[in-house]
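Two proteins follow. First one:
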Amino acid sequence: MGIIHNGHRERTKTEFLARPESIPDHKLLELLLFYAIPQRDTNALAHTLIDHFGSLAGVLDALPEELCKVPGIGGHAAVLLKTTKEISGRYLAERTSAENIVGGRTDAGRLLSPYFFGARNERVCIVAMDGKGKCLGVRQVSEGSVNAAEVTARKVVEAALALNATNLILGHNHVSGLALPSPEDKATTVYLAKVLRTVGIALVDHLIFAEDEMVSMRDSGFDFLRE
């Protein structure tokens, strides 16, 4: 019985990771309750909670003492549910903050520069944004040479899609101490812009960092969209 139970949990986790947006509310709640109630089938409990409080939002809005009145919900589960709501609220507040709007190279440079501080090798990072310029995340996608275009492109696209980006700013550093774009940098930028366009993502700029200096390829007059 335990093997069947564990197998169901593993299948549910795998299904969620593969298609999180398609998981129905009750199954999402069931999955969350795995981590508070390790020795019980939480599927029926998830249905009971949603029926009792009217919706997934109703479950998360419920007071801890009301949650604990539902048979099967104890203190651990109530804390987990309230923690989930609090984390979600803070996440949304941070995502909608005006401070996360990337208005240009200065904002992007502020987000990217910590990733290159003290770096001994070339690193490639991205700032992922939505259509309104809101930052969706900053990721380091590779370390080594930016000129490994095919490898870099695959990783850039994977990271951008994972963050649901529609606009992207690329950044990499020169360990030589000179932030001027090389011919290889320009060729790679053109290549990446073309690859990103095929998946509906616009490359807005490519910033090059070297010590305390930063150069924007777009501001330097290099129009990689027309190359």
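Second one, unrelated to the first:
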Amino acid sequence: MKLSVFFNHLLQAAEQTGQSLDDMMKMASANGVSAIETHVELIDRDPNMKSRLENAGIRVNCPYEFFGWNGDEYGDMTRLHHLIDTAVEFGADKVLVVPGFLGEAEHKVLNDILDRTEVSLEGFASPEFNKFMNECEDITMIKDMMGRAVEYGKKRGVTVMIEDFDNLSSPVARTLPIMWFLKNVDGLKFAFDTGNFASADEDSFIAGELLREYIVHLHIKDKGVEEGYEGAKFSRGLATVSVGSGYLPIADIVKWARSWGYDGYFAIEHFRHPDQAKGIPESAAFLKGI
């Protein structure tokens, strides 16, 4: 099993323990982690990143970046080119883009529609849903920029992905809009985050089956039970926990992914974990034990 971890977690582990970043990278490597997922800014910030990674036996799997493609950044390819060029420089063949966030009125309308639309192929065909997606100016701008991103990625040999983002103001927070972008932007792929559908109170397995043909990467995130979710359909809380210690069926999802041939990295993700130096080995051990 190929394991990666978010670079942020290693930085946080160093901060929490008082040990060096290099020590935390070696700790991750000793626990079977061979790659990182990282915000491109963290690569830019460290001129010694290449040698630091090499010394720890770790590579860059997937850089990512946040954009404002439905705002002032529409049409500006500067940061997008930098993200993809950085991936090439560090030997990564994929990038993750967070495309932007809808305004309050737009995301309220979209989520109201989705709240009364079944997460299924039939729901995807809903005239109300498709009317919004086709007529919303923000969606049109983001779709256009996603297309440009994919085209530049192709030129450089890099796959461009979106993920299920854990903020309902994102146009890619829920299954049906994600599917809409994947079907309407040729060549766009999907990074399946096992935990983020809980933020939208949607079922990860249903989403995974609907989006499976586009999945090229997995973020393995668990969630812990919290009070206040008794009336939810699928979510029982959003607490940050080590992988395997929450309520999500992580082992079943991993086995499901392997059943249809997924052979990429399983990226350990638990932002804001209270003890990353403990959580990373716990998560790695759980995944290797499946």
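SUMMARY FIELD: The chain has a mean pLDDT of 97. The longest strand covers residues 59-66.
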